[in-house]
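cron nightly-structures :: item 1 of 1
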Amino acid sequence: MFPSWAERKIEGSTLELLAGVIILGMLAVLLVPLVALSNPHAREHLEARHTAALKAAVDRYYIENNDWPADLAELVPNYVPEGIPTPPYGGVYHFSATTNRVLPAP
């Protein structure tokens, strides 16, 4: 006549599971493009942090030696103990002796 309490619980659990899967799918559809777009911004911020840290190391080198370094390798290990970072887009950072600036990889 009437379904038992156990049968109703099984139907409810299946329906709740289906609703949960649908909601998670909708969230994934909305969030995946946002995460994919954030990657280039993260790379830009990382490159800006790297160049700022290298510029500060070059300035410290200049203050202590009263001369600019010939290249960034002279900063290791005294001014950049962890080594010269790798740019997020690949390549290497360069130091321009004419402008005394740290340049990102081309």
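cron nightly-structures :: done
The first strand starts at residue 94 and ends at 96.
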